[in-house]
Design brief:
With about 250 residues, this protein is α/β, with parallel strands linked by helices. About 35% of the residues lie in helices and about 20% in strands. The protein contains 9 helices and 8 strands.
């Protein structure tokens, strides 16, 4: 099964001259990115469904084997917290479908305020989603981390997002035939858009993640993993370190 590794977003001015060649126009960032990595998590979808013109350009700027993951809009997950969001979800999925075969999993990222008392709401929401898409669920309230929650995800063939983030435990729970990893870190550790270099070495954590990815790969689990700049300071460097560790373990990613 494939291993898809990418960053969370690509529109970072501080990457100019560090990851992107000096002076690269922002409109050419993604096309260059796609020459280095083959997957990405769309960060802007959290703020609203991307416009059709943007989706069409992203499709043109990337090769056929490139893959996009995306977060559901915060209107659904944070503001309405799934209440009366059927039309919102339909609009989002309809827009994202423009990416066709390039579209990977869609992530429902919830805040701490989304609590286990909403389990029936989540059950109903997941059950109503079209089955032609793949879904992953990220929670930030430890109260969800129970067997009944994992069973709920299995029921709907949704992946539990495995996060490396302050305040959350590191899990390896599998709930479907793919897994979705997000290397997040702590936003306070790295100044916003000063993502020029590694500030926080994470050799131990990356060794552990490489072992986890290898184990899942050997179990025929498809792996999607996305690095945030706040994890180490410069997310392309995080990916390169993970790729190097996987290569040491006999896996090309």
């Amino acid at each position: 099964m494939a291993i898809h590794l990418g960053t969370q977003g690509w529109s970072y001015k501080s990457w100019d001259g560090v990851f992107y060649p000096q002076g690269t126009p922002p409109g050419s960032y993604l096309a260059y990115y796609a020459t280095r990595f083959k997957a990405i998590e769309i960060d802007s979808s959290f703020y609203g469904t991307p416009r059709a013109a943007y989706l069409a350009k992203w499709d043109r700027d990337t090769p056929a084997d490139f893959r996009f993951a995306a977060k559901f809009p915060k209107l659904i997950t944070h503001e309405k917290m799934l209440v009366d969001t059927q039309d919102d979800a339909r609009y989002f999925l309809g827009g994202m479908s423009a990416l066709g075969a390039k579209l990977g999993p869609l992530c429902l990222q919830f805040s701490y305020e989304f609590k286990p008392t909403s389990k029936d709401l989540l059950d109903e929401f997941l059950g109503a989603l079209p089955t032609e898409f793949r879904y992953a669920v990220e929670i930030r309230n430890r109260g969800w981390l129970k067997d009944w929650f994992f069973d709920l995800l299995r029921k709907h063939r949704a992946a539990l997002v495995l996060v490396d983030r302050v305040s959350m435990p590191k899990l390896q729970e599998l709930t479907t035939d793919f897994t979705y990893v997000r290397w997040l870190g702590n936003r306070k550790d790295v100044p916003d858009d000063e993502y020029t270099h590694v500030r926080i070495p994470r050799d131990k954590e990356l060794d552990e993640w490489a072992d986890t990815i290898r184990e899942m790969h050997e179990r025929d689990v498809e792996v999607w993993g996305f690095a945030n700049n706040h994890y180490m300071g410069h997310s392309p460097a995080t990916l390169r370190e993970i790729q190097a560790r996987l290569k040491q373990r006999g896996i090309e990613a």
